[in-house]
Design goal:
This protein has no helices and 32 strands. It is mainly β and 389 residues long. The chain has a four-stranded antiparallel β-sheet with strand order 1-32-31-30, with no helix packed on it.
């Protein structure tokens, strides 16, 4: 493993991305600027790049199969309407000019999620006031106006290599978001950009502990998988449902029981050929659990991911197109820190013994490609990145 300090102090909101070819990128916000460090395939991290110099925040990044990188962020200059912005870096490191994806008359825009498929088709999930919107576009091309959903707290997006896309939405039906009945819903979009009807998966009467968002993934054949924490009078379970293009969702499959509801999200990832990985926080002490569904096979039993002592304070997971998984979990003990540990799966899908990469317990972010894995986290001195082949 190699570790790099890629930013000065003061960075926040760090995120990682990896391409199939082994390109790695880390983006963050620092002092109102969106900055980035990247490593072309088989080359170490180079000079820090300023993607947007001022009035910018909330960066996210994702690669397509050719190594083009999409960076998305929000811009809010004083007295001007907020804007959702993007910029593309080619596989040779050349930057295109910034492109405005969307703008709104006042309020605040927040980037929720970004997904890019192999050919460079992209979907961006974002939040504005009480709405979630999903905007579709192409790297170097134009962007749609965005499909809106009212009274929505969160949105997770995915797009498969065949062009099918989906959004997992957490909304509410009461007058106020913190005194409401929550809804979990999914909407699917055809390769032509047409949204189907939004399907309500479950409604939950909200009381502490709050229920975290669900997740969604789409494979190259357009099969959509959603997962979330389902609560009933008999307890909480993590469940998944799947649907082929043009077909209804199948019945919920229980992936695991939960000791209680968790505010942490359920994260769903899929390879192009259809392997699916679902991960969630079992509880803040027991830590993260994950299941996998191989192509054409059944769901696995839950596995412990990056086990250890201390309270989970941050975690992230990634999945390479080859099916290899990567996870990082940060734990903090009382009056001290336990640090951040990472783990990968072997070819059979079993999570291996974790490695300690940091003694600092801060929210890590991970990305994985065919040959490289990257873990990034914040330190008092700046953004650190650990790369492992």
């Amino acid at each position: 493993m190699s570790t790099f300090l890629v930013s000065p102090a003061g960075a926040t909101d760090v995120h990682a991305a990896a391409s199939d070819a082994g390109d790695l990128a880390v983006v963050w916000e620092r002092g109102g600027a969106v900055e980035m460090a990247y490593s072309p395939a088989d080359v170490g991290f180079g000079t820090r790049v300023v993607v947007s110099a001022a009035d910018s925040s909330d960066p996210r990044a994702a690669y397509d199969a050719s190594g083009r990188l999409l960076v998305v962020w929000t811009s809010a200059k004083g007295g001007e309407p907020p804007r959702l912005m993007s910029r593309v870096m080619t596989d040779t490191g050349t930057w295109a000019a910034p492109v405005q994806i969307a703008t709104r008359p006042g309020g605040t825009i927040r980037v929720a999620d970004v997904a890019v498929n192999a050919s460079g088709q992209a979907v961006v999930g974002w939040l504005w006031r009480d709405r979630a919107l999903v905007t579709r576009g192409a790297l170097g091309g134009s962007w749609s106006t965005g499909a809106p959903w009212r009274k929505t707290l969160s949105v997770d997006v995915a797009i498969g290599d065949g062009g099918h896309a989906a959004a997992m939405l957490q909304g509410w039906v009461g007058p106020l978001a913190d005194e409401a009945t929550l809804t979990f819903a999914v909407a699917r979009q055809s390769p032509a950009g047409v949204w189907g009807a939004t399907k309500i998966l479950q409604t939950v009467v909200q009381d502490p502990p709050w229920v975290g968002p669900g997740g969604v993934a789409v494979d190259a054949q357009g099969v959509t998988t959603v997962a979330w924490q389902r609560f009933s009078g008999t307890g909480t379970t993590v469940v998944a449902r799947r649907a082929r293009p043009g077909r209804a969702f199948g019945a919920p499959v229980v992936l695991a029981g939960q000791p209680t509801r968790s505010e942490s999200p359920v994260r769903v990832l899929a390879t192009p050929d259809g392997l699916v990985q679902v991960a969630w926080v079992h509880d803040w002490i027991a830590g993260v659990r994950a299941v996998r569904r191989p192509v054409g096979g059944p769901w696995s039993a839950p596995a412990v991911v990056c086990g250890g002592d201390g309270v989970v304070v941050g975690w992230d997971v990634a999945l390479a197109d080859t099916g290899q998984g990567l996870a990082a979990v940060s734990r903090a003990a009382h009056f001290g820190t336990q640090g951040t540990r990472t783990s990968v799966t072997n070819r059979a899908g079993r999570w291996l013994t974790p490695d300690q990469v940091s003694t600092i317990a801060d929210g890590p972010q991970v990305a994985i490609s065919t040959n490289w894995a990257v873990v990034t986290w914040l330190t008092p001195k700046g953004v650190r990145v650990t790369v492992n082949e």
